[in-house]
Amino acid sequence: MLADRQDAYGHMVLDYLVGEAGQEVDERDDGYVATSGGPAAYFAPFGEWPRYQREGLRYVRGRVLDVGCGAGRAALHLQDRGHEVVGIDVSPLAVEVCRRRGVKDARVLSIAQVSSKLGVFDTVLMYGNNFGLFGSFRRARWLLRRFHGITSTDARIVAESRDPYQTDAPEHLAYHKRNRRRGRMGGQIRLRVRYRAYKTPWFDYLLVSHDEMQVILGGTGWRVRRFIAPEGSAYVAVIEKERL
Known about the structure:
Blueprint: H1 8-17, E1 25-28, E2 33-35, H2 40-43, H3 51-56, E3 64-67, H4 73-80, E4 85-89, H5 92-101, E5 106-108, E6 121-126, H6 137-149, E7 151-162, H7 170-181, E8 188-195, E9 198-199, E10 203-206, H8 210-217, E11 222-231, E12 234-241
Parallel strand pairs: 3-4, 3-6, 4-5, 6-7
Antiparallel strand pairs: 1-2, 1-8, 7-12, 8-9, 8-10, 11-12
Helix pairs in contact: 1-5
């Protein structure tokens, strides 16, 4: 759980909820900084989502674990569709925002703390590029096996990611090379999020191509059923359990 001074994202979405404008800054460990699209996207109604995200939700079924639930946009939409949803996030203030907005079951919990104590799920949702929360190749495979154990026989993971290699920006290409020299995946980003006087600890966030995702899944009991056509480098993968 993040301490209050570390909860940059949570402070931003809480401010937005009460009518105060603000902007988060993503700081990479090579010094590169960028702003996000702004907090409005975390509150956007379903009809304003990108097409590939809307299409991805067609594959959600049953009881849902919303990993990195943020301000609750996906959880709220799925609740309205009749799903039981458990939303988890490391940001206490984001979870507070979810609860204020009507998410019925939102918990302060990291992806690494997911266990059978939460019950059995039919879908694991990882929107907002939250396949990235796996962090690294090795950690992804460990967590995928854990997800396998807490999901039903025909469960799915519906995950959003971004192909980091669809760029010609010199600073990003150099970062990919730097990562590989250090034994990391090219799109394994080390970053922290800043907002006003708040900043998160440094953490790893994993962006992958289609091919890399399939390699990560190999031997974990999961396989890609389909990739939903991207808009730019972003895409959604529908991942299913392998048939034994």
